[in-house]
């Protein structure tokens, strides 16, 4: 998506190895009209897949997931992050390690909101090592729903998460895929 | 907002004292088209206020904040929750106690995204004891921005958060205000 690549080049900041900050429109401040455009593009790519629910994880995936779900005319479900000690019943759960926060969290979805009748599109802002998306795929499999694939705003190819998911047969679509980056220099795939 | 009250009556579950679960369209699953309607209504109520930014806190406020900001044609900023030990520079921060989680967290907004030139509308899903909103008001005041007010989806009047904010001069608008509730019985104000 050309307009996204331009914004990443203009507004993105590479902070140390592997960390791209796009706080001005995606992760901290959100540009709502631009987010709708990104959601429309993700919806277009999965238009024929029969998606019945969009699944994301709190927090920064929610806006683009909502925009995608709006374009597809389906609900969004966002997995909640909890401390790993939760004993709540009736939830699908997965462990996710966050490289940014350097800790493991548990993500949960109440069983009411995913069923074997669903076809699920996973949406998130970033795909780096693939920890969050792998956890969401795990939750979709627990539910018995069909997985249409995963749509992300930015894929950092060099962190190999997308490659791992594709090897497991998951269709992955990224609006912008970054092959390499260093301060002042971002190369798209 | 009549359609919202109907959904609360139909889908809401009162779980013990003071806890209303509306997971099916607001807190865990999101109905995107309905969320856009709620955002439009909040935007309408603050139409003349010169709002330049919508401020919320992750995670369940993000969808309705985005819908409100879309209708107003302005960006959303969402405060991030961190453990209270964060030493990051260049952020406005406030301590917030969560009655649901029974712990204090720090919420932060990078200084880049709120300035004395802004007029801020705070948006959130719930207004109960007012802890989160009071933290957000505190952050707006630190930034020197003007506060247009706070718009929430559901106010639980009996938990007095809105009353406290109004006494401090904050304009508060709720799409549905609940005077009292017990399992099977929700009374609007």
Computed over alpha carbons, the radius of gyration of chain A is 16 Å
Under the CATH scheme, the architecture of chain A is 3-Layer(aba) Sandwich
Helical coverage of chain A, percent range = 25-40%
Counting structural domains of chain A, the number is 1
Beta-strand percent range of chain A: 35-45%
Low-confidence stretches of chain A: none
User: What integer is the average pLDDT of chain A?
Assistant: 94
Class derived from helix and strand content of chain A: alpha/beta
Q: What is the CATH C-level name of chain A?
A: Alpha Beta
User: N-to-C terminal Cα separation of chain A, in Å?
Assistant: 12 Å
CATH T-level fold name of chain A: Rossmann fold
Oligomer: homodimer
Strand order of the largest sheet of chain A: 6-7-5-4-8-9-10-11
The chain pair forming the largest interface, with residue counts per chain, is: A-B, 30 and 30 residues
Order of helices and strands of chain A: HEEHEHEHEEEEHEHEE
How does the major sheet of chain A shape up? 8 strands, mixed
Quickly count the helices of chain A.
Answer: 6
Give the overall shape of chain A, derived from the CA principal axes. Answer: globular
For the secondary structure, the number of strands of chain A is 11
